[in-house]
Write a structure and sequence with these properties.
- This protein is mainly alpha-helical.
- The chain has two domains: about 170 residues, Four Helix Bundle (Hemerythrin (Met), subunit A) (Up-down Bundle), CATH 1.20.120; about 170 residues, M75 peptidase, HXXE motif (A middle domain of Talin 1, Up-down Bundle).
- The chain has 14 helices and no strands.
- Helix 12 runs antiparallel to helix 13.
Length: about 350
């Protein structure tokens, strides 16, 4: 199930007012805003993902060349570095990231049916090494291509004997595949006929946007959808796991202990991303948005500090804070930015 497909077609849809033309607001230079967002936010962060993905691939090559003396911690560090870089930009779905299901292939979640576990079991059982070539993986299950597979190989890490060799082969193939996906995203953003060039020329880029103003609206919608995803999925799954200790865990990256770290980095990225579009908002609106973000961040800190039954209450309170943040964003962003919020490439349409 695609996380944001469900987001856009569920009862959590933005209210009709959010899709209407915004009330008269500040003058908006969409071409300048969208290009600044691309140059200073999206492209540098995807380049950071690219660098981290190649570093992870190199770490697997080095480790697997001599497993007996290899340091598994080097693989964990590479995984965590890539997890950080991805969390900082995964909410940017416009254009290149949405193509060819690259986002889903890079980090498949929410996984209610253990699709990743099933994919990993299948990969560990393959007899022909050619079936683990990145090109082959790219045409297979999205659940068998990204960060969750790497996480399961490393937490717990088991690389001894014949099984260890198979795990090395799978990890190396998936790491290579992630590097390829990152290269494709950056390449599409930066090519002479790429997304960034289209923004600079105020023209169409494939089916992602028709001009720079529409691109700015899609970018803003990506950021708002990121908030919706935190409110409806990532934070509630923290509550689910805290309140249902005997049920299968559903939070993102729980094996590696990254759950709250990922959410916090998502939140910080969305907050920074919005600044590219709210520069002309009134001081009052900026303060209201900032206060809502502050409350959400505090609620995450409270969850992290809570232990035992108190964690359930803290997670429930975090849902309330993130709901308030989303409501504030939906109410204020159209008027604060002069841009519309609406359906975008996240729902596959």
């Amino acid at each position: 199930m695609r996380l944001f497909r469900l987001l856009m077609i569920s009862a959590a849809l933005f209210p009709a007012a959010a899709f209407a033309d915004p009330a008269p607001g500040p003058a908006s230079n969409a071409a300048t805003e969208s290009l600044a967002f691309a140059d200073n936010f999206a492209v540098p962060r995807f380049k950071a993902v690219q660098a981290a993905a190649h570093a992870q691939e190199s770490a697997w090559i080095t480790f697997c060349a001599d497993r007996a003396r290899g340091n598994v911690e080097s693989l964990k560090k590479a995984y965590n570095d890539l997890g950080d870089a991805w969390s900082d930009v995964e909410i940017v779905r416009i254009g290149p990231a949405a193509a060819e299901m690259r986002v889903e292939r890079f980090n498949w979640w929410l996984d209610r049916t253990d699709a990743t576990g099933k994919a990993l079991t299948g990969m560990l059982a393959v007899a022909d090494a050619n079936d683990l070539m990145p090109e082959k993986l790219a045409s297979g299950s999205v659940a068998g291509q990204g960060l969750p597979v790497i996480e399961r190989l490393l937490y717990p890490a088991a690389f001894k004997g014949k099984d260890g060799a198979r795990r090395c082969a799978v990890g190396s193939a998936v790491a290579r595949g992630q590097a390829i996906i990152a290269d494709q995203i950056v390449g599409d953003w930066t090519a002479a006929d790429g997304t960034r060039a289209a923004l600079a020329d105020n023209t169409r880029w494939k089916f992602a946007f028709a001009d720079a103003k529409e691109a700015a609206s899609v970018m803003l919608t990506d950021l708002a959808a990121g908030l919706e995803g935190l409110k409806d999925f990532k934070v509630p799954m923290v509550f689910h796991d805290a309140a249902n200790a005997k049920a299968p865990r559903l939070t993102e990256a729980w094996r590696s202990g990254r759950t709250l770290r990922d959410i916090g980095r998502n939140l910080a990225a969305i907050r920074e991303g919005l600044t590219y579009f709210t520069a002309n908002a009134t001081a009052e609106r900026k303060q209201m948005i900032a206060a809502a973000f502050d409350d959400a961040q505090k609620s995450l800190a409270a969850v992290e500090a809570a232990k035992g039954p108190a964690r359930v209450d803290a997670a429930k309170a975090a849902i309330v804070s993130f709901t308030a943040l989303m409501q504030t964003a939906k109410a204020l962003l159209p008027e604060a930015t002069g841009l519309t919020l609406g359906f975008n490439n996240l729902d596959g349409d």
